[in-house]
Amino acid sequence: MYPPPPLTALPELGAQLVRSGWAVLDGSSLQQLAGIGPEAEARWTRAWDSLPPDHYLRDGGRYRRRRHGCFVVDGNRVEAAPHRPHWQPLDYNALHGGIERHFEPLPPAWAADADWQRLLAALAGVADGLRGRRPWFVEAHPFRIDADEGIGRPTPEGAHRDGVDLVAVVLVGRHNVRGGETRVFDARGPQGVRFQLAEPWSVLLLDDERVIHESTPIQPVEAGRPSHRDTLVLTFRRGGFQGPQAPAAISTP
């Protein structure tokens, strides 16, 4: 059994991120932060059942499904950006970096959802607390990792940083799986924590300049039954979206 995550009370979120570079909020705290209710999350959750396959897995796997969306958030103003390929430098993703990956976009109704925009604006406010008020270039990645063929890898690239400022990893749900331990380590030393996100819509928040993270593989609890782990990963980056012409690393102003 993996230990549960150490939770941060919402009023302590900013201090915890500054102190440790990471924090975990439970589902009710995320709702309170964003000003949304469980009906919004239930509405979004259905979209995970129709995620298309990820055809870019270089380990030969067929265990990942995903979509991709881009937004610009400035205060409470949230605008969908033109759809674009996802790109990461090899410095941050040695397995899948250096190539443009063209994923299917988020459904238009999802991108225009007022509760979704509240969620992005609230998390951009967390990024403001780390780096100061500015526009944030946000990439949204709904993932389904399945273990129907025996094993699924949430982070096939291993322990990594994403080349952004703030990463939010939302655990949407787990079905008939074991494993999937979350590991967060100080990028400058051996200090780290290990735990399992299990509560739907709990969220791990990461200061990407200070910590590296990964999730261990998943396997089915009961063979022959559908098994999957669903997450929503949101990244917040200052200065622009990552691309072949973008700087490989962000610098502190």
Please provide a written account of the structure.
This protein is an alpha+beta fold and 253 residues long. The chain contains five helices and 13 strands. The strands form three sheets. Strands 1, 2, 3, 4, 5, 6, 10 and 13 form an eight-stranded antiparallel sheet that branches. The termini are far apart. 39% of the residues are buried. The C terminus is likely disordered.
Number of strands: 13
The helix count comes to 5
| Helical/strand content category | alpha+beta
Shape designation: globular
Percent of residues in helices: 10-25%
Cα radius of gyration in angstroms: 17 Å
The chain-level mean pLDDT equals: 92
Classify the beta-strand content into a percent band. Answer: 25-35%
H and E string: HEHHEEEHHEEEEEEEEE
Distance between the termini: 42 Å
- Unreliable residue stretches: 246-253
Biggest β-sheet strands, sense, barrel: 8 strands, antiparallel
